[in-house]
Amino acid sequence: MEKVGLELEIEDKSSEDGKTSFVKIHAPWEVLATYADVLKIKVPFKVNDIPDNSEMPMNWLSTPFRLPEHIMHPEPDFFTAPFNKSKSDFFLIDNKDTFFPPSTRNRIVYYILSRCSYFRDECGDKDKKGIKRLLNNSTYTAAFPLHDSRYWKRSRDANCESERFSLYKHWAGFLSFFKEQPLNLVRKYYGEKIGIYFAWLGFYTEMLLFAAIVGTICFIYGFLTYDDNEWSKEICSEAVGGKIVMCPLCDKKCGYWKLNSTCNSSWQSHLFDNVGTVFFAIFMGIWVTLFLEFWKRRQARLEYEWDLVDFEEEQQQLQLRPEYETKCTNRKMNRITQEMEPYLPITSKCARTCLSGATVLFWISLIIACIIGVIAYRLAVYAAFASIMKDSPTTHLQVVGPFITPQLATSVTASCINFVIIMILNLMYERVAVWITDMEIPKTHLEYENKLTVKMFLFQFVNYYSSCFYVAFFKGKFVGYPGDYAYMFGSKLRNEECDPGGCLIELTTQLVIVMTGKQVWGNIQEALVPWLMNWWGSRKARSHPESLYSRWEQDHDLQGFGQLGLFYEYLEMVIQFGFITLFVASFPLAPLMALINNIIEVRVDAWKLTTQFRRPVAAKAHSIGAWQEILNGMAVLSVVTNAFIVAFTSDMIPRLVYMYAYQPEGEMNMKGYINNSLSVFNISAIPPANKPEDGENPFWFNSSITTCRYRDYRYPPGHEKEYSHTMQFWHILAAKLAFIIIMEHVVFLVKFFVAWMIPDVPSDVRARVKRERYLVQEYLHNYEVEKLKVQLSQNTHDECSCERKEILYTVSKTGDLLLF
């Protein structure tokens, strides 16, 4: 390290454990300037002369949400250019000690450490290098930049800015939840990669406010139209629902039941299954597009302001992973740099990729197997709940409580079990995903993160959403009818039927339990686990005076943030994004729940990063990476899933078809809908294997009841097409398919039109980028011209002096002139 110019300072004071020694590394100006040139770090060379027109006419409205000027410390806006050590006087260098911000300095030092050799064999052709290898073999226990102060008070050194204290006081505190984030200070202290994450999280939370408002209005609409729910009135009335006898919902253990026993679930379903649901599904399809397009504009502005334009090419070219350089012993010529570099043979790369893909498929298959197990649990336990919750004179199929039905009890318990399985599989798969990604030996840090992102997202997508997909698109769709029921894989478990109120309320239950459970558990885990580990790790030091507990010891006792620290934060938010887009038609309050969670999430992430973790090594990132494409894919998929939910999971289409095509002439209401939507079956034709056992039927059931009803559109017994689908069934199916096609085309056309109308890069940012490139060329040209003039002037002066000396020398030799 000393050979490359770094200055080392070994701390004399022993640590609390008496075993750990600390080595402090300093980078002088020459080292910083050299590697800033190598890494092409952009630095200011001229004050921005383009007028700023970004102030809004009514900007005073946002004043309560702003942080004070003395906290934000707005810096002058500069034009920047890649640093060149040989042209250091070209740049605006006022103070060499503060010219490079802290994040840039620690990034440069870590770049050196990652490539610094510590062993060379006799032949000298196999260097061992990189701080990561020394950390892995326990030569060093940790390597991290120091925080500039304690988070709860300012530094004693007046020259220190105490940025950590400012971040803790004005950013990490929950009472600041309504204030803007000091993103420039976050970027200055932690680097652009962490800054981009918090900028995206803040922007996502702001956009959720609009979705939450519209979703809440749709929910309120469903509540206000509660009394207009004609089909629920029919279900609950003794004249209609009280006289309709329904067929058993499972074999042997389920008895006959009356339709009015599902009165409560029918009313609950109306809160989410109404006309407002269709409107909200279309709105969310457009909202997703607006969110992604406006984020691109916000990201483009940050790219320019934080000097990240064209950064990806630099990263791909310059920053190879030390693990890649170490493990790849073969070398070949890089066509771009014309230098020899390590590479992985194509045969080895293909073999590793195939093994990785097979592992991912195995784990996805394991998830599907677990989901099938949960479905089998639902089928088996439903019969048990139905047998326990038998009808009685005082309660209708409900002895546990006035709102508990076998369907609801089964759905809630299955959702809780599914959530536990999800959490267990997540813990197991995280280790596997990291292992197989390491095995592939990605070339750059960006490639490593992208590969891991794809693996983790595919797994979590199946893990979190498969149960919701089952309830939304499979449950109740392949049931059959009395006398010809469908069974799960040929077993004795009969396929589940939907609640008479529809499957939408069950999808809502599943969504609420998994989404809420994940968010609550995630926040507790993120805040509590690091705090407990730090509390336990620093227990010995707490008994000593603070003056003996040095800054580097305090930082060493904190948790390491790790290279994948942000990865899990992005993954958590993207999974949440899927919940509020893919299945939002079943639960309009999902954006509101996400908004409340994210307001807490921003401050929890800020708090733990500022107080519970070591200061991470600063890294650059010009965007949110592969997550952008994942969000785009989920936005497209959400339009399809919501269209199918409204068409096939909701009862909206059958109701509209009944109102406009099968209602008695002259009437435009929903009277008679319930009776129309239920088919009739002759009880005597039910096979013995499907009939309830003795004692399972309710007290009111007797031999005078000869028929039962079930959810379907089939011809009644005695008809020439007995138990085959009626024309109304095919009309409804055609209407569902037509709705899906129309909704998808309308939403996609609006999405593409909005995306076309909104440019990805704001016009003022494009102008600034062009002006900056123009000025770089112009100023460099003028700089070189002036430098050449000075050099020519100096050369001319030197040549004249030489001529004069030669003349004097010649004259003096002739003796005609004396030299003075």
UniProtKB/TrEMBL annotation:
Main location as per UniProt: membrane
Cell location: Cell membrane; Membrane
Annotated Pfam families: Anoct_dimer (PF16178), Anoctamin (PF04547)
Keywords, in A-Z order: Cell membrane, Glycoprotein, Membrane, Transmembrane, Transmembrane helix
Residues passing through the membrane, by range: 197-224, 275-295, 360-388, 408-429, 577-600, 737-758
Start and end residues of each Anoctamin transmembrane domain: 186-772
Domain Anoctamin dimerisation: 1-183
UniProt GO cellular component terms: plasma membrane
Membrane topology note: Multi-pass membrane protein
One GO molecular-function entry: chloride channel activity
Family: Belongs to the anoctamin family.
Protein name: Anoctamin
Species, as recorded: Dicentrarchus labrax
